[in-house]
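Hi U.,

Before I forget, here's the chain from the pilot set. I'm dumping it here mostly so it's searchable later in email.
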Amino acid sequence: MKRESFLRFIMIIFTILFLECSTLRELANVQKPLVTLDKMQITGLSFNDISFKFDVGVDNPNNLSVKLAGFEYDFQLNDRSFIQGKQQEEVLIEALSKSVVNVPITLEFSNIYSNYQNLESMDSSSYQLNLGLFFDIPVLGETKIPLTTKGNLPLIKLPSIKIVSLKLNNMNFTSANLTLNLNLNNPNPLELLLNKINYTFAVNGSEWISGLNEKSQKINKNSDSNLEIPIQLNLLQLGQTTYSIISGNRNVTYSLNGIVNIGGNNSLLQNKDISIDQTGVLEIIK
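Structure:
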């Protein structure tokens, strides 16, 4: 063998041994990834449900890549398991790099209130998310790393609308002016907006007024708000029966039908149409 060929052969052997030793050193120093909660963000909010995501940071301190094989979660409300799930989508975490894993969760308020009746009167609820992330790590094999985070989430309920009174302001033989007073109740920990109301109001089976009010009205959080609807009646058209009803001192039956559109005083809470279908008996206040 020529001298040059022999030296080249020796260099190749040393290179292989060096690389193998370097790889062995790296394998001997393999560490578990560092898992942290980077952010929790509400991504959707309506009167029906709430959606949010947890951004979980995975920091790989190794000179070798590791694989996130999936994760499992247990979401608790008031220290009790509410929903559980698994995600098996694989994510490769490159050497000496950090990746973010999203954990999305959606909760329906109807399910919350059916399982936790005491929460129907609450503005918020405590939660705890228990995560278990599964990694395929060289040398260490399959490794589960736990992560727990706690917080509070808002509880949203549908607002209600009801008739408070029907007041006669003035009348003569040809016309009558009345005011229908409505109460809007906001049971939520955030401000709402009454965007519009489309309504029909009838007394003793006779329609007195219908209309569309698109004037926005604010409803403070955890409070009531009044809405006044003016009613102007032409007694010549409605006849003697209506005149007798208004001028008399007896109670009347009523029906209020329509749709109320309500949303949040921010861009997060989605608008919702709420149907009104009410009947009852009331007294005309003079």
